[in-house]
Amino acid sequence: MASGNESTSTTATELPLAFLRGKGLAATERASSDHPAVDVPLGEVVVALGHLKSEQGFDMLMDLTAIDWAEGASPRFTVVYHLYSTTRNVYVRVAANCASDTEPSAPSVVSLWPGANWHERECFDLMGVKFVGHPDLRRILMWDEYPYHPLRKDFPLAGIETALPDADVTAETGTRVLSAPMAGGPFVATSGEINLTEAEPRAKDESWADRRPRPDQEGLKQVRE
Amino acid sequence: MATEFSFPDSAAKAAKVPAGLVEGTEFQTEKMSLSMGPSHPSTHGVLRLQMELDGEILTKCDPVLGYLHRGDEKIAENMTYNQFVPYTDRLDYLAPLANNMAYAIAVERLAKLEVPARCQAIRVITAEMARISAHLMGLGAFGLDVGAWSVLLYSLHEREKLYKLFEELTGARFTTSYTRIGGVTRDVPEGWLGRVNAFCDQFLPILEETLTLLTRNKIFMDRTVGIGVISKADALAYGLTGPNLRGSGVPLDLRKDKPYSGYEQYEFDVPVGSKGDCYDRYLVRGEEMRQSVRIIKQVIAKFPDGPWYATDAKRIFAPPKDKVLTSMEELIQNFMIVTEGPQMPPGEVYFEAENPKGILGFYVVSKGGGVPWRLKIRSPSFCNLSILPKICTGCLISDVVSILGSLDFVMGECDR
């Protein structure tokens, strides 16, 4: 039921914002369709989240992620935190823009919630945001040597050909990680006067050629003759 | 609110691992590193644990994830909102109906769209049935992990009956893709609710019988009581949710605390554990199935009439096929939604639903139009597993199997 949020949002919108301002932080209101949301400067994230945790009862870090606003946008990366209070049953969204558009970084909040450890590793892995002060910032979903950050907007959906994680397998077999056959994708058929077999997002069957026709067509020929 | 449980005494259990052993000072042993998984029966999928062992005791445990990473979040940015529904099936593939519902509600909140009472009721029934089926599988696999074969046979037998009902409702047993933004794919078939009710009636005694196989089973208790204890504070700090959090004594259940889809109308209890060990988590799951049956029976008793999709959402919900084939306006509506996708306003929402494995969250950032700009999936299994390095250190290697079984995770959701 959509009204579940709206009932609290009108009164609670000012709360985290006014609270953080009262603490002397340069927080500003963030546009949101549901929960109260604030923007804070990157340098004050840990302090702001610490205050929210200790004094406002936001005891759970539910989610930590980043948004890439595409190449050319500035600020390009925004780190977003979602906190939940198990005592007051409210959420708050805290966001901070990364200073650098090419090598984004943010302070780590592992000291506040140990659970942030994996969230930050994931964010670093897929989005390339470096978390300063993280105890063990390694990739988590992709393998350690993987050279790209796939959730960035400039990374193609099909992927980029790279080496396998195991060099010895590559040396033996020559196999590499290939990009996906999109065949005119992603997942859409182009409109206009086109050959539908070429437009459909599927791999084409190249095994039959003129010199070696499909067996069923050969059969048809014989029947006609 | 909370249901009381009594727990057997296990003081002897706590003293099982002498502290000196962990340090490795008493025996001059060499540490061994062992890789468990990704294809190991007790890792429930493709989880790999890189362990460092001193004899049989873990001195370090480093989970390695990503073997099932498919880039769901990247894919979501490249397709319309309805096209992503089948991908949500494959998150927690033991409860696709619950995932479908969570995703649909998240996007509906973005559109500020409210679905009719009948649609909400259908979603609640399906989500609770999914919860039962997921817990049955979790229970059976947990029993199997610690050596109790028969539980799996009972629970899979019951789950099969649920899958028959899912098939009748959605057309698929497993990957249901049942919801659409603004509704569901089809109304409940005639007589289906009666069959669900009949299932619930016969299920409760069988559930009791199945749980009896484990609840006072000496072997099962030896393997679970006092093992893998997670304190309240740790559970909150690591963002554990679902039965794993409630097993540690935190009564957080979003169906009660932040009701969605009309959960506030139904009466049910939220079971919590007191110690936070593997046994507590098992008991919580068992009780949750009984509560789910209670909810389903209440929904069926006052099943609302009326439309089963948002009739006023012309740019969001594609109308039923019979209307598309007979009415011009519905045909145009269908065409626009199929070609351009449901149209969303700009904005961002974060919605979380209480799924069988824990709290599944969707953070949707929209710039308007038919495709999300960013879709983050907060997966409960991912967060639940993040506590592994902490609770596994100092355990016996056989306890790791119990802990993994009791955490009841799904790698499809963890790796996304």
Features:
heterodimer; A: 225 residues; Beta Polymerase, domain 2; two-stranded parallel ribbon; disordered N terminus; B: 416 residues; alpha+beta; Cytochrome-c3 Hydrogenase, chain B
Could you characterize the architecture of this molecule?
The complex is a heterodimer of chains A (225) and B (416). Chain A is α/β, with parallel strands linked by helices and 225 residues long. Chain A folds into two domains: 1-155, NADH:ubiquinone oxidoreductase Nqo5 subunit (Beta Polymerase, domain 2); 157-204, no CATH class. Helix content of chain A is 28%, strand content 17%. Chain A contains seven helices and nine strands. Chain A has helices at 3-12, 14-22, 45-55, 116-127, 167-173, 196-199, 215-224, and strands at 28-29, 37-39, 60-68, 77-84, 91-97, 105-107, 130-132, 162-163, 176-177. A five-stranded mixed β-sheet of chain A has the order 1-2-5-4-3. In chain A, β3 (60-68) and β4 (77-84) form a beta hairpin. The termini of chain A are far apart. By secondary structure, chain B is of the alpha+beta class. Chain B has a single domain (72-415), classed as Cytochrome-c3 Hydrogenase, chain B. Chain B has a three-stranded antiparallel β-sheet. Chain B has a three-stranded antiparallel β-sheet with strand order 6-7-8. A two-stranded antiparallel sheet of chain B has the order 4-5. In chain B, α7 runs antiparallel to α8 and α13 runs parallel beside α18. The two termini of chain B are 34 Å apart. In chain B, 53% of the residues are buried. Mean pLDDT of chain B is 87; it is low at 5-15. The chains are: A alpha/beta (225), B alpha+beta (416). Chains A and B meet through α1, β3, β4 and α4 of A and α3, α5, β6, β7 and β8 of B.
